[in-house]
Design a protein that fits this description.
146 residues, alpha+beta, two-stranded antiparallel ribbon, 3 helices, globular
Length: 146
């Protein structure tokens, strides 16, 4: 990417490393696939401008390992589960590149890799929707008294 090119913005891929996947073939009865995914993503994206990988202890989606979250300042955050380091690495990297290049973090559904279409757990709005020019709902208009 040429210096000064702002097409790619900062994106962090948070990878849950504590979720346990049942593995009857292992003495412990489980593995922690997020550890391998975080390592594989870190190696694949080493030196790539605009995208970083951060291992986190919990994303609270324990029943859907591996889980990642794409986050960036002022953008929607995606939480995606049921990922695998061996089969979905290219999909995760491609989605991260699309996410980083987007203005608001929203990746059009048809442009998402298949594992992201099936695995989205949540899409969380940025802290301030006003930054994106979106109107925050006025709960008083909806009859809320609280």
């Amino acid at each position: 990417m040429p210096e000064g090119d702002l097409t790619i913005q900062v994106c962090t891929i948070h990878v849950c490393t504590v979720c346990r996947r049942v593995r009857e073939d292992l003495a412990e009865g489980y593995d922690q696939p997020g550890l391998g995914l975080a390592t594989a993503l870190g190696e694949r994206l080493a030196g790539k401008a605009g995208i970083s990988v951060e291992a986190v202890e919990c994303l609270a989606v324990c029943k859907r390992p591996c889980t990642v979250a794409f986050a960036a300042n002022g953008k929607w955050t995606y939480l995606v589960g049921d990922l695998d380091a061996e089969t979905h690495l290219d999909d995760i990297v491609g989605a991260a590149e699309s996410y980083a290049a987007s203005a608001n973090g929203i990746i059009p559904w048809k442009e998402r890799p298949i594992p992201f279409r099936k695995g989205v757990v949540a899409r969380v709005p940025p802290l301030s929707l006003r930054e994106q020019g979106l109107r925050e709902p006025d709960l008083r208009e909806q009859g809320s008294t609280s």
